[in-house]
Amino acid sequence: MPTPPRVRFDASLWQLPSSAAQGQARARMPALDFGVQRWRPASLQHQQDGRIHLLSGQTMGTHWSLRLANPDYLPTEPVQALLERVFDDVIAQMSNWEADSLITRFNRSRPGQTHVVPAEFAHVLEAALHWARLSGAALDPAMGALVSLWGFGPRQNPLQPHSGQAPAGDEIERLLKTSGHGHLRWNAQTRQLQQSGGLELDFCGIAKGFAVDWAVRKLQAAGWAAGMFEIGGELRSWGQRPDGRPWRVQLGTGGSAEAESLVVACREGAFATSGDFWHQFTQAGRRYSHTLDPRTGWPVTHDLASVTVFHEECMHADALATVLTVLGPQQGMDFAREHEIAAVLTSHLASDGNEARRQVLKTPAWINQFEA
Question: Is 273 marked as a binding-site residue?
Answer without folding.
Answer: no
